[in-house]
Amino acid sequence: MTQMIAIAAAELRLMLRSRLALIGLAALLLLSGIAAVTSAVQTASASATRAAAQAATDEQFKTQPSRHPHRMVHYGTYALRPVGPLAAFDPGVDSFTGTVLFLEGHRQNSATFGAARESSDLVRFGQLTPAFVLQTLAPLLLVFLGFATVARERERGSLRALSAHGASAASILGGKVLALGGVALLAMAPALMALAWAALRHPGEGGIATLIALAYGVYLLVWVIGITAISALARTSQGALVTLLAIWAIVVVLVPRAAAGWAGVAEPLPSRVDTEFAIAADLRRMGDSHNPDDPHFAAFKQRILKQYGVATVDELPVNYRGLVGAEGERLTSELFALYAARADAIQLGQSARLETLGVLSPALAVRRASMVGAATDVATHLAFMNRAEAYRYQLIQRLNGLQVTQVSSADDRARSRDPLADQRTRISADFWKTMPQFQLAPSAPATRAAAMLPAMALLAFWLAIGVGLLWLARRNLDQTAA
Amino acid sequence: MPTPPLFIADLVVERGDKRIVDGLSLSLAPGEIYALLGGNGAGKSTTLFAILGFLERQGGSLTVGGVDVAANPDAVRRQVAYLPENVALYDHLTARENVDYFLKVAGCPRSRADVDAGFEGVGLAAAAWDERAARFSKGMRQKTAIALALLRETPLMLLDEPTSGLDPAAAGDFHRLLETLGRRGVAVLMVTHDLLGAADTADRIGLIQAGRIAREWTASPTVPRFDLNALHSGFASAR
Fold first, then answer.
1. B159 contact residues in A (CB cutoff 8 A)
2. For residues A259 and A269, what is the distance between their CA atoms, to the nearest angstrom?
3. Mind listing the pLDDT tens digit for each residue in A407-421?
4. Which of A87, B92, B185, B202 is least surrounded, with the fewest CB atoms within 10 Å of its CB?
5. Can you state the angle between helices A169-201 and A445-479, rounded to 10 degrees?
């Protein structure tokens, strides 16, 4: 162990005395620090903006004057996706999916106002976030700092000198891993501080933040071990550099993008336009509540008349228009739910495929673990959409219920020509204040931790591969000391 | 009978399909200085690598202080100070830092005063002690490495062309140093082309040819210690 520490200390001293290494490390720390600060500021701003917008839209709904309930159905309201508790560390898909959903009767809208669409084109190439720095830039810095860690010793003959002084191959490699690992830890520091800061602001997130930190720790350890092993296996440091840069490009850049493309091809998601057309066609087939000859609504009418034991809708003790509105909403919502479930299944399927492809790239595995832990993954976005749809349906049906029970059919029919009848169809403004508000809590940390397990297992798999490679390197060093 | 610091019997070492050392036998007593001479490719450095466990042997036996090299190369290397022909110092470290580092790796750290004394003993100018090795001449590197080898205080030293790069005065000083080591009981195996230096210092001189000791001369207790003409003609015939 003393040998290993001495070798690690010498390697660190070499880095400290290398201007290039210092500049690289300083640049990464600067980038990491900037990412941590800007991401924290942006997330805090987005969180405050969304909370304020949600409060404002809730307030607007509550302060509506006395109105006919169906006008409120069309007035609608907004649901804004709350910013995840650890989104300052890893915003995940937040920038690419919409964050605002307009909720109204008869329609299920798409979320809008994704940051990537609202911001400059640069956002589309990946935001500078602590997670991005750790996933993409930190491995690159480690490659530049560590590609020659063993190869350099071999080239200048000091590897043999070390061996001659009793340093075993395991000690040499262990010392190199220790030194590069120390640099990796330093590189992680600003990002980890951002994570700790985000966790501290949200009690209960400490455990999951630790798990995320562990995932990144394992990810960078895989790089550290891999870089050391390749450096020991390569004949020259130049060869090691070229090999490691190629691996970085494939693992960090190529595979994640190709995997996303492959998942999209394997499980294609219909475009929003196609879905809208399909829903419209289904709606036409389903029934038209305004058409007296429509078979579905004719049967519905007969069922209601029978239920209340009357012969005509005028004799009903409730407002038939309200009942038709509620039935129409039920039917369309069932259809929306069906299409949404299909789309969700496809998106979750794509996500699962991407997760599986973590077997080809540890970057994919850590990205998945990070987004799931930070509650900024696709599943979290879909949970928001589904929760918002459930809230929309509940709100609209509550308004339809008001029309059924609080607005008489006679007044409803006469309100366009009789101002007094129109007045009577209006529900008191006080009622809007009692309407429930949209709320969405992030999934429990324990649930997210469980969802992180497959990605963590993949990282463990990569660590095992790294250790295997290091074992090969050790054997190679033992055999080629002369 | 005490365990010899180095014992080699019928050593066979191959590199690829070529047999470099072929039945070499050699045993060193404590304090004995042995100079191994021979032409290029005769197997001198290969023998040193085999002793250090850098190369596997294909036959024979090889022990250092009674420890089989093949069984425990790391333990053997801790008992051996090796001075390579091309000294590999770290350019970014000073002479003192280089020595401190290798001594730590070898598990025998020394005090600052000891290291200073070591540098003084090999004639490395004091101004160079805390200078980075990047600016060192070959001779300065060699002196730093010799100081390091001496500071390890191992029972066996392996020297590969130790006076290469040293000026005649420094080479002379080095030979005096070897004699001191010999008196302290350190066994030295020195691979060299320096016939005169070997004759000046060694207790025995072996001529290696085709991977084995072809001829051997033992120093006479009287001056001249070796018959230089015989040595020269023996060496010339081996080339």
1. none
2. 15
3. 887 787 777 788 887
4. B185
5. 160
